[in-house]
Amino acid sequence: MTNTKKVNIILLLLFFGDAFVSPFLALYFIHLGFSNAELGILLAIKPLCSLLGNFIYGHFSKGLKRDLLLFRIICAFLIVSMVAFAFTSNFIVSVVLMVIWSLNGNVLFSFSDGIAEKCCIKDNKKYSITRMFGSYGYLVALLIGGSLDIAGLLNYPVLFIISSVIYIGVIVITFFIDEFDTLDVPVEKITFKQLFKSKSFIKYIIFTFY
Prior knowledge:
Layout: H1 3-19, H2 25-31, H3 36-58, H4 63-85, H5 91-123, H6 127-147, H7 150-154, H8 156-174, H9 192-195, H10 199-209
Helix pairs in contact: 1-5, 1-6, 1-8, 3-5, 4-5, 4-8
């Protein structure tokens, strides 16, 4: 099996597992009885920490081998936070877990896209087709979750556990990806000052926090 086919499976499972948790997270917090103020704090953490996570992990990305290692570490953080979410109803603990979740959640998909792109180039396959497997996984999970009211049938903690098991499977599959040398492309380092001069970045910030 080629690396691209393995990545297809990874993206399918990765988005499938995420779709069982992320869309229901706000509902879960309401279910726990958090106030509107507490709910606002928890939901505000996600865009801020997602942005910081990309900055932090972006400095360590370099080649397929390094990206795979970071991907496994990030995935492990998410698994821990998901399992912990299933067994707590404390607001402070939930804030800590939300920070861990948000610092790693968005970055995980950035790394999966990077790994997928490298493998597609190596195997001479179209990245756009591989990326569609992630969309398929998300779509199927949402259809199952919505049509069967799976959150109501299984309860939220069970969904967290299911996603955690799926993510463990994703980590296992990454060990079967054949590593290969990738060309190090020089990347110009951008300062915060230059970053905030970019109109595209400003639009991204407004869209994310809006």
